[in-house]
Write a structure and sequence with these properties.
It is a single chain. The chain is of the alpha/beta class. Helix content is 45%, strand content 10%. The protein is built from 16 helices and 8 strands. Strands 1, 2, 3, 4, 5, 6, 7 and 8 form an 8-stranded parallel β-sheet that branches. Helix 4 packs parallel to helix 6. The longest helix is centred in the C-terminal third of the chain and has 15 residues. The chain is globular and about 60 Å long. It starts with 6 loop residues before the first helix and ends in a 17-residue tail after the last helix.
């Protein structure tokens, strides 16, 4: 989720529920240590619970970054051992570390010894020709020996040569059963499954065999799914609503995001860096194209402000007034607008 789950994205997603743990995009250990700490570690207090995801392979550096994560108030620190990009491989971290379970165990041990917050590992089910279940089991066993109790497993292998990061998200086949088997072998560990999970029904199935589910791009594409999941598994959003009411709720949610947008703009943020994360709010709904087009056209403007989002919302809600699909009770939206 590089360049996707930044602080603006996470603050927006948090509006859908307080019950999910959010993860940052991967931050390189060297960038955290030698770069702008506010840029790489800063977040809004509303984002909790929040985990910092780090990429690196030097135990001392990772331990230092874990300490910083704890000091800055993160609830968890996560070591990424699943990213297959060439840039990450050239720096000798990410998915290529699956070939070095002993080194990953040392990295984890250094991080665990440095902090009181949980340390987790995100990985794949294999890389290249090292894709047997025994390879995966041995990797998890050694890393658990370093003190890791939570593993987030993307249920695809990664080809480090020949496939791009995008292709590695779709071409290697999913094998959720491998993750289920891992949980059976290591019942004492917290095993969280990731990869190709798109709806609440799939989540319910996976929770029969694992301890948790991580979702990524589907949520980014269609963030409203978080409300549906929250309602089903936590019961915190009330009962089912009509399509008409759901449409109104989307508007209420984006209005609740206005203060955050205004605050960030006063701090020098560019509107386009915020609006790119909210384009999927009306995914699958009439008016979705109007919403995306207006934000994409006017959001990048040099002096673009909150009024761009307000205008986009008005255009969507005005369009709904002439579309009876939004008003099964035939009462119209005039009183709400």
């Amino acid at each position: 989720m590089l360049d996707m789950t930044d602080r603006h994205c996470r603050s927006f997603l948090r509006l859908f529920s307080r019950n999910f743990r959010l993860y940052t995009e991967m931050k390189v250990a060297g960038s955290i240590i030698y770069g702008d700490r506010e840029r790489f570690l800063g977040f809004d207090s509303t984002e909790h619970p929040l985990a910092l995801q780090i990429g690196g392979c030097e135990p001392d550096q990772l331990a230092f970054c874990a300490k910083l994560a704890e000091q800055w108030g993160y609830d968890e620190v996560n070591l990424n051992v699943g990213c297959p990009s060439d840039r990450v491989q050239n720096a000798q971290f990410g998915a290529c570390l699956m070939a070095k379970p002993g080194l990953v165990a040392k990295c984890v041990e250094s991080m665990v010894n440095a902090v009181a917050i949980p340390v987790s590992v995100k990985t794949r089910i294999g890389i290249d020709d090292m894709d047997s279940y025994r390879n995966l089991s041995d990797f998890v066993g050694q890393v658990a020996g370093g003190g890791c109790e939570t593993f987030i497993i993307h249920a695809r292998k990664a080809w480090l040569k020949g496939l791009s990061p995008k292709e590695n998200r779709t071409i290697p086949p999913l094998d959720h059963a491998v993750v289920y088997r891992l949980k059976t072998e290591y019942p004492e560990l917290n095993i969280i499954i990731n990869g190709g999970i798109c709806n609440a029904g799939q989540i319910a199935t996976h929770l029969r065999y694992t301890d948790g589910v991580m979702m990524g791009r589907e949520v980014y594409r269609n963030p409203w799914i978080l409300r549906e999941i929250d309602q089903r598994f936590f019961g915190s959003q009330g009962g089912p609503v009509s399509q008409f009411d759901e449409f109104l709720l989307r508007g209420d949610l984006i209005r609740a995001f206005f203060p955050y947008i205004e605050n960030q703009l006063t701090k020098g943020a560019c509107l386009r860096h915020i609006t790119r994360h909210i384009l999927g709010l009306y995914h699958g709904q009439p008016g979705a194209r109007i919403w995306r087009r207006h934000l994409s056209t006017y959001g990048p403007g040099k002096n673009a402000g909150l009024e761009v989002v307000q205008q986009a919302l008005k255009l969507v809600e005005d369009s709904a007034q002439i579309n009876p699909v939004f008003d099964p009770r035939r009462t119209g939206l005039a009183a709400y607008a």
